[in-house]
Design a protein that fits this description.
This protein has a single domain, classed as Peptide Deformylase (Alpha-Beta Complex). It is 20% helix and 29% strand. Strands 1, 2, 3, 4, 5, 6 and 7 form a 7-stranded antiparallel β-sheet that branches. It is globular, with a radius of gyration of 17 Å. It is of the alpha+beta class and 217 residues long. It binds zinc ion (ZN). The site of zinc ion (ZN) has 5 residues, from helix 2.
């Protein structure tokens, strides 16, 4: 295994839509292993192939929550999503910064594992946020495109790469209803006079996404 160089914004590869992997071979498995080692060395809780300069749909995720679970996923897709949470995120490709991002609270991810076997993963909370962050990388999307309150990491670095569930919306979002709008959601929270942790209701607008993918079984 090898530690790879993590590319930083504004590298072009971070903005490209990554290509699906069509053949799972030894070089793909080596790349997954190198990405894993690179993630642990960073240290980070997730890494997408474009972050090591490879425009392919591969991610590695380890929430490091004591479960010992490492995910090495090929062509991952979110096929179900519900609820909203707002958490604080950072990114290894944008060092020294964090911001607040609305994400789905629960997601189901379908992917291939390193042997080419199809896997379904139900994730919620922190793990769900990491999957969404990493899968965004495969579409050339960075959290800074969606976040509010982008700011330097505090000196103790405590906030880096951590996501705190700050606000939860009670209404489940219908499958494929689209992306949370950071602006809209923030505004709704403000209108409702919600404090951190208080429940707010809002209509969420956004482009439709995921419903087509959900049917591709
Ligand atoms: Zn990132």
């Amino acid at each position: 295994m090898a530690i790879l160089e993590i590319v930083k914004e504004p590298a072009e590869v971070l903005r490209k839509k990554a290509k699906p992997v069509t053949k799972i071979n030894a070089s793909i498995r080596k790349l997954l292993d190198d990405m894993t080692e690179t993630m642990y060395a960073a240290p980070g809780v997730g890494l997408a192939a474009p972050q090591v300069g490879v425009s392919k749909r591969l991610i590695v995720v380890d929430p490091q929550d004591g479960s010992g679970q490492l995910y090495q996923l090929i062509n991952p897709e979110i096929v179900k999503a519900e609820g909203w949470v707002k958490g604080t995120e950072g990114c290894l490709s944008i060092p020294g910064m964090v911001g607040d991002v609305w994400r789905y609270e629960k997601v189901q991810v379908v992917a291939l594992d390193r042997t080419g076997k199809k896997v379904w993963i139900d994730a919620e909370g922190y793990l769900a946020i990491i999957f969404q962050h990493e899968i965004d990388h495969l579409d050339g999307i960075l959290y800074t495109d969606k976040c509010t309150n982008l700011r330097p990491v505090s000196e103790d670095g405590e906030e880096e790469e951590e996501a705190e569930v700050a606000e939860v919306m009670p209404e489940p979002v219908p499958q494929g209803a689209g992306e949370p709008s950071a602006e809209g959601a923030g505004q709704a929270a403000a209108e409702a006079g919600a404090e951190e942790g208080e429940q707010v209701t809002t209509g969420v607008s956004g482009e439709r996404r995921g419903s087509a993918a959900a049917k591709e079984e």
